[in-house]
Amino acid sequence: MLAGMNSDKKLSTISFKHKHLLGIDGLSRGDVYSVMEIAETYIKKNREPDKKHAILKGRTLINLFFENSTRTRTSFELAGKRLGADVINMSVSNSSTKKGETLIDTAMTLNAMHPDFIAVRHPESGAVHLLAAKVNCSVINSGDGCHEHPTQALLDALTIYRRKGKLEGLTVAICGDILHSRVARSNMKLLTLLGAKVRIVAPPTLMPPFPESFGVETFYDMKKGLKDCDIIMMLRLQMERMSGNFIPSIREFFHFYGLDEEKLAYAKPDALIMHPGPINRGVEIDTRLADDLNRSVILDQVEMGVAVRQAVLELLGRNIN
User: Fold this and answer.
1) pTM for this structure?
2) Which long-range contacts (CB under 8 A, 24 or more apart) does 278-284 make?
């Protein structure tokens, strides 16, 4: 059993009283540990030759992605199929939104098809909440603009827990493009909720307004931000969301804020390296560190992603009438 869970509590009796998963706000520590506890069972199952369940047989999951994604969309597709659901991937480039259909029209059209789950990725912050208000099924936020990406934070927490055996009291440094990162926002909320000490490290141009409102420590110097930390979470530079000159050059950004051996030496000797992907090698992180299986848990994060999304689908599915 995970720390924080009642040891005599059976998986079948775990409570998760939410219709949607739109963000970290509203989740309790118990909700988070429920997801992690069930995900643990799927990690083991996913390593077996027969990975299939029938727990969502007859259910339908629609992956509605308005932005390109390989890891998240594939992860949700695998999660749904391994639980026995019918999975439909909607490509926005082939959809009616390219013909002028609004998000509300799309939501109403999909709702008329009676899906059970819609996993949504959208470039605009808040779009997923708008869609959730217009449909009868469960909606899972797979990333909305610069706002949130809750399943990424859940899988990151599980990855850390499995390697460190705890979350409370750990020091986590989230580094890089904080301003544009929904991963950073969800992780700041979730890791703080679970008792971790969170730092954010970035140049002033990539720091969000009023960062203290997240209850985290703010650093503009990478070496000071990494000092004695347990976890280093690097973020992708999101050039597609930048309008203007946020960094002088890629080379200069890596010099000051890219993770290399010199900067890593300021963290604890057993500090773990994370990255939500896709990695820009030589921009956010040195290739050797990204591939160092003793320090990097980037591939662990990918594996945890499928299991966590299976757990989320199972728990939301229990609330479907």
Assistant:
1) 0.93
2) 278/70, 278/71, 278/236, 279/236, 280/236, 280/237, 282/254, 282/258, 283/237, 283/250, 283/253, 283/254, 283/258, 284/176, 284/234, 284/235, 284/236, 284/237, 284/254, 284/257, 284/258, 284/259
